[in-house]
Structure formats: C-alpha cells, structure tokens
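4.2 Preliminary Data

To establish feasibility before requesting continued support, the project team ran the inverse folding procedure on a target of 125 residues. The structure was first converted into the token representation described in Section 3, and no sequence information of any kind was made available to the design step. The complete token record follows.
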C-alpha cells in the first residue's frame, strides 16, 4: 500500500462517515431508540477520528520512510470496518451478538496507534 492509496481509503472513510452522520441525525431519529442512536453516533465518531488519523499517517509516511506507518493506516481502516461497521449493523438490526466483534476493531485502533508510535520512536534522520 502506498501513501496515495491510504489517502484514498481515508477520503472514502471520511466521505461515508459524513454521510452516516447525516443519515443518523436526520434519517434515523424516527426509527432508532435513543440508545441505538447513541451507538450509531459512536460508530460515526470513531470512523471520522480514524479517517483523519489515516490522512495524518499518509501525510507523515513519506517523511519517516517507514512501512510500519502505512501498515498502521491499513490497520486503522480495518478497525473502522470492524468497529464502526459492527456498530452500524447493531444499531440498524438490534442483533446484539455483533457487539462481540466490536472490541476487535477497538484493538485494531490501539494497535495502529502503537505502530505509529513505534515508527516515530525508531525514526532516525
């Protein structure tokens, strides 16, 4: 994966996050309980934060010349798919068993940020 591909994934993540946020605020209010709407909003928040994180990683990757940074971006994207995706499905369907996979996405987020920290720690000019 190149930094260009990571920017593309980040932009798609942010674009769909804005759409999901708007859909939740305007289209789902009448359909979801307050609890499930909060679940939806959590999914949007983490998607947006990590979409911006992916953009940041793509921006600094060329300066650090570290494959670890690009891998971190991919792991962030996987976290968005697993964490936010499972919460979106939970909110829409009420299938609580999906909550069991949500923490896997959270672990992916944490792992990605650890990878960013390691890349910075190892960097020598």
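Position-by-position output of the design step:
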């Amino acid at each position: 994966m190149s930094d260009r591909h990571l920017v593309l994934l980040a932009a798609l993540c942010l674009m769909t996050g804005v759409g999901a946020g708007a859909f939740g605020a305007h289209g789902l209010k009448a359909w979801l309980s307050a609890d499930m709407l909060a679940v939806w909003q959590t999914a949007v928040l983490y998607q947006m934060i990590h979409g911006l994180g992916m953009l940041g990683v793509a921006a600094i990757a060329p300066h650090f010349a570290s494959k670890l940074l690009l891998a971190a971006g991919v792991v962030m994207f996987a976290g968005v798919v697993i964490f936010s995706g499972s919460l979106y499905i939970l909110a829409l369907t009420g299938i609580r068993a999906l909550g069991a996979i949500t923490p896997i996405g959270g672990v992916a987020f944490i792992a990605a940020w650890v990878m960013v920290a390691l890349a910075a720690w190892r960097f020598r000019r």
